[in-house]
Amino acid sequence: MVPHPPHAASPESRAVLLVPICNPGQAWGEFLSALQQQDVPPHQVIVLDSESTDGSAQAAQALGYTVQPVQRSRFSHGGTRQAGIDQLSWGAEFAIFLTQDAILARPDALHQLLKAFDDPQVAATYGRQLPHANATPIAAHARLFNYPAQSHTVTLQDKAAKGIKTCFLSNSFAAYRLSALREVGGFAPDLILGEDMHLAARLLMAGGAIRYQASAHVYHSHNYALREELARYFDTGVLHARQSWLMDTFGSAGNEGLKFMTSEMRHLWAQAPQHLPLALLRNLVKAAGFKLGHWSPFMPRAINQGLSMHKGYWA
């Protein structure tokens, strides 16, 4: 049956939640439980399932959620999300995105996120990511640095001060005003990653604002191994090499990297000094991965695929 939005004024009644999954494993039960506990649920939940074999799609269906199959070989961060939006058959005004490992931290998390749209200039919003209980001190600091306790709103005018950080946005927990998203053409389908930042940049250039909503919380963090860190920053370098207009338009991150490392050293010195050598090594690995990604247009595809986290991009 085609869903129709109820006659209610809450933003949740005008929102669809889309969640790409691929074998989320045991954490999926926790994800679904937190979603079920929301004070005001979204009007529709769509699970974009890339051929999961762990029963996660069936668990979502059992709760009444819509499951849209996605060919794993054809998955892309932007294209798959846009396909989910394109298949909506009712008048949704807002699209919320969560990743399968982002656990809503409070019953009002979605409501708090959508409150950002009370400002009609806000085209997209993202919430605060708190570290999982098992996060390493290094992973925990990354969340504390990138997702502070204070909310803020940015527009294109902030690029002089913030550079490329003006476009910062994370689809692990984000929402978009669909009219603004469609006005700029939606998600780009051909990116290795960074579909959220790429879209945020275009929304800003179209006159929209991006809101960081610190009152909306999820648990989301990664304890990356060094090899995974290298691959992640390689892919980030690939994005920057192939989408050079982002840097041309917004500028570099300036001294953001230095700020991060200084903050990380202080945090670890106070909380876990034994992790300082690993943090220094990790930062060197990140820099090397990013530089290699910039060189990817001049390297053989097989080497690029071997270095990349998202190997299907090179298929």
Jot down its keywords.
13 helices, 315 residues, 2 domains, 9 strands, single chain
Global mean pLDDT: 94
Radius of gyration computed on alpha carbons: 19 Å
Distance between the termini: 37 Å
SSE arrangement, N to C: EHEHEHEEHEHEHEHHEHHHHH
Tell me the β content: 15-25%
CATH class of the largest domain: Alpha Beta
Number of spatially distinct domains: 2
Describe the oligomeric state of these chains in a short phrase: single chain
Count of separate DSSP helical elements? 13
**Beta-strand segment tally:** 9
What shape does the CA trace take? Answer: globular
CATH-defined superfamily of the largest domain: Spore Coat Polysaccharide Biosynthesis Protein SpsA, Chain A
CATH fold call of the largest domain: Spore Coat Polysaccharide Biosynthesis Protein SpsA, Chain A
CATH architecture of the largest domain: Alpha-Beta Complex
- Structural class by SSE content: alpha/beta
Uncertain segments: 1-8
What level of helicity do the residues show? Answer: 40-55%
Describe the largest sheet: 9 strands, mixed
